[in-house]
Amino acid sequence: MLIEFSVENYGSIRDEQTVSFVASKYFKESDEWMVACGAPGLKSESILKAASIFGANASGKSTVVDALDHLQWLVRFSAGLMPDMALPYNPFKLDSDHRLAPSTFKIIFTVGDVRYDYEVSHRSESVTNEKLERYETGRSQLMFHRYTDDAGSVHLKLTSKMSGLKKVQQFLENKPTSLVMSRAAQEGFEPLMAPYNWIAKHLRFSEPDEKDASSFGPILDGAEGDDIRSDLIKIAAHADLGIVGIKSKSEPFLERMSGIEQVLSQEALERFKDMPFKTAVFTHSAEDGDVDFESGRESVGTLAFLGVVADVLIALRDGAVLSVDEIDRSLHPALAREIIRMFADEGVNKKHAQLLFTAHTPQLMDELRRDQVWLTTKWGNGATTIEPLSDYSVRKSERKSIGYELGRYGAVPYVDGMYASLAGA
User: What are phi and psi of 353, to 5 degrees?
Assistant: First the structure.
């Protein structure tokens, strides 16, 4: 499970900011959101199955999700970069001290009953620091520590149990943009496969505004199994979308991608010639029987809802961590609320999957505990800060959404007089 994620000097985040999934011991509310943690160093803690981030536009909500996505990208792909390729690097640029400083990412997570603490710092031209620790007992055990000195030399500190990683050092010296974790996975180095697989495969991301029928067409065709297919169809029929059925539709890929033949080589066109493009057909009930609609006839909200639900169903099945940026985009709050509630339900979320989401709809706060709500503020210097709602005095009986809309906790836009000059005032 995801325990904690921190980021520093990335995008609008200048100083280290943290989102934690550790439940507060001071709140005795909504125990359905908590899971007892048996990992060393965390045995007295409960972990939350969801966390949310609210804030004004451009306050840095999406930056947190993007930073987590970026960390996963580094772990999965950095070892495969060409030697002359730079790392994607997005430091805080509004003061001179940070423009050239490393971006830093830290994540704490558990795989089974083992806790891992992993951190990475990098600039565009090199990884400057990377460290992995594990907890099998109450004390941390170093797995490796890689760092780059001022002269640009790469150093790799290992314990005796990790001596098999020594062969990676020469690779890192030739390709300083590669993570140890990324290269070790290429080499199939067994002691690091558990943390690698968790970051590379159990962190999932869903973008509602990028959803169309192709995002869940393969699911309807059985690509994720009959249970996921059946559950998606059931949810579509019960979501008051006017849909009574969905079925998969396969089209030739090249016919679907109009104009692609102008940019691809003949060799590439041959490879794509027989590739199918999976989409969906939606069935609605009419007075004289059922009528099928192509996906282009469905609303943006319908496609966004079903696309996110498809991602949710797969995350629930796998016990994964799903991050959804602006979960309420194009969705009615009632539908967004139902998506969130799926993670709280022990009968549905049997493997303790977790949800991290950003949103603008205040009413969604009321589905959560106070320690599940995080607030972003962008200050006059352009830097984002993140703080939990639990830092504020919110009564248990108080609706969090009302206090938020009244500005009691900040993290709302101040727009008084925004159009006054246009009205001649």
Answer: -60, 155
How many of the other CB atoms lie within 10 Å of CB of 140? 15
* Helix pair angle (180-187, 61-77), 10° resolution: 40
Q: What is the pTM of this model?
A: 0.91
Nearest CA to 54 out of 342, 336, 381 is that of: 336
Residue 260: its pLDDT value, please?
65
Locate 327 and state its tokens: 């979960």
Q: 3-state SS of the chain: helix, strand, coil percent to 5?
A: 35, 30, 35
**Edge-to-edge order in the sheet of strand 289-294:** 243-252, 276-286, 289-294
Determine phi and psi for 39, rounding to 5 degrees: -75, 145
- Taking alpha carbons only, the member of 214, 204, 41 closest to residue 137 is 41
Task: Read off the tokens for 282.
Answer: 């939606």
Which percentage of the chain shows pLDDT scores above 90?
64
**Neighbour-count burial of 143, counting CB atoms closer than 10 A to its CB (0-12 exposed, 13-18 middle, 19+ buried):** buried
Are the CB atoms for 248 and 322 separated by under 8 Å? Answer: no
pLDDT for position 257: 63
Q: How far apart are CA 390 and CA 368, in angstroms?
A: 12
Residue type, 362: P
pLDDT of residue 109: 97
Over 21-59, what HEC string results? CECCCCCCCCHHHEEECCCCCCCCCEEECEEEEEECCCC
C-alpha 209/C-alpha 121 separation (Å) is: 31
What lies within 8 Å, CB to CB, of 125 at 6+ separation is 86, 87, 176, 177
Give the CA distances from residue 342 to residues 2, 31, 252, 352, in Å, rounded to whole numbers and listed in that order.
18, 15, 36, 11
Q: How far out from the chain centre does Cα 181 lie?
A: 20
Euclidean distance between CA atoms 163 and 61, whole angstroms: 40
Enter the tokens of residue 138.
């109450």
- Give the residue ranges of the chain where pLDDT is below 70: 253-264, 268-269, 272-273, 423-425
Q: How far apart are CA 134 and CA 101, in angstroms?
A: 27
